[in-house]
Amino acid sequence: MDDKLMLMIPGPTPVPEKALTAMGRHPIGHRSGEFSELVAEVFTDLKWLHQTQNDVLVLTASGTGAMEAGIINVLSSGDRVLVGSNGKFGDRWAKVAKAYHLDVQTITAEWGQPLDPEAFREALEADTNKEIKAVILTHSETSSGVLNDLETINRHVKAHGEALIIVDAVTSLGACTVPIDDWGLDVVGSGSQKGYMIPPGLGFISMSDRAWKAYERSNLPRFYFDLGPYRKNAAKNTTPFTPPVNLFFALQASLRMMRAEGLENIFARHDRLKRAAREAVKAMGLPLLGSDDCASPAVTAVAPTSVGAEQIRSVMKKQFDIALAGGQDHLKGKIFRIGHLGFVSDRDLLCAIGSLEATLQSLNAGNEPGAGITAASKILNAG
């Protein structure tokens, strides 16, 4: 049947009808008073979602663009930085930093394992000359389904006194709490196709007062990603360059939906879906890549041993029109990932789990039929 695709990947995520309908409006002038009114509402709601009084700047870019902007607006050539890397996106930030001739030291962990906060503490305490200018890390590592301990690592960064913290919150913002002001996070980047529940195309970045002071010293080249003009224009409820107006329509609609649901309910829903997915996968006899203690609320990584991950993904797509994400880099073909981020409900997860059980049965790789649905239902019914 056509037009029944169900996205159960960590991005792009499903888009609610309200956002799709809003996006279908005729565009309006981006220098009009009507657009400025829309932008004012969006900026207010973005501050609410980010739990900050800082400006949340909107770029026409992906989350990668937002993170690159964060790095190049607060650092200078030759600056020493610590980059946490336990997956593809941690690796990416190290590559971005090296591209701008920063002095990169990586703190690593195996994919599927969380970054060790003690490794950051030791590196920061050893830096008695205060040469480390920033710590860059991914909060929710999408490639492996791991949630890193941002709160603890950030405490060690704050104890250093000089270094900024630059956070990839692309799949954590809108899925779990990222209290920017309470934790004193300096630079936080994210992207629209994740917890924001709209299509790709917008990047978001929050900058602290400390980050803006660093901006004044930064000498890295930038033009389109120079955040100074974005800040000046945000004060006037506009943007420095032509924005994707219709994505702003969608963003306004999705943020209104998020306001209505409430932050705590949003976070509780993602936590519930995470736990249900993981218990269902265990009940089906499939190994998980990481432990429950560090599981991301956005995505669950599964490492099947009795059947190929790509076989599972293929049957799920062909027979049930459900898209699951594959593994990346050295995990390609070895894992599949179930996204439960953004506009995903209990019903959606149960549908995916039931289809996964049927897929395993068709591949002669399943446990007792219904075990996964039963395990997920127990979590979902308990709330």
Automatic annotation (TrEMBL):
GO molecular function, one term: transaminase activity
Gene3D superfamilies, per the entry: Aspartate Aminotransferase, domain 1, Type I PLP-dependent aspartate aminotransferase-like (Major domain)
Keywords per UniProt: Aminotransferase, Pyridoxal phosphate, Transferase
Pfam families: Aminotran_5 (PF00266)
Coiled-coil annotated spans: none
Cofactor(s) in the UniProt record: pyridoxal 5'-phosphate
Residue ranges annotated for the Aminotransferase class V domain, each copy included: 28-328
Keyword Transferase carried by entry: yes
Domain of life (superkingdom): Bacteria
InterPro entries per UniProt: Aminotrans_V_dom, Aminotrans_V_PyrdxlP_BS, PyrdxlP-dep_Trfase, PyrdxlP-dep_Trfase_major, PyrdxlP-dep_Trfase_small, SP_NH2Trfase/AEP_transaminase
Keyword Repeat (UniProt): no
Alphabetized PANTHER family for the sequence: ALANINE--GLYOXYLATE AMINOTRANSFERASE (PTHR21152:SF40), AMINOTRANSFERASE CLASS V (PTHR21152)
Family per record: Belongs to the class-V pyridoxal-phosphate-dependent aminotransferase family.
Identification of the protein by name: Alanine--glyoxylate aminotransferase family protein
Gene source species: Phormidium yuhuli AB48
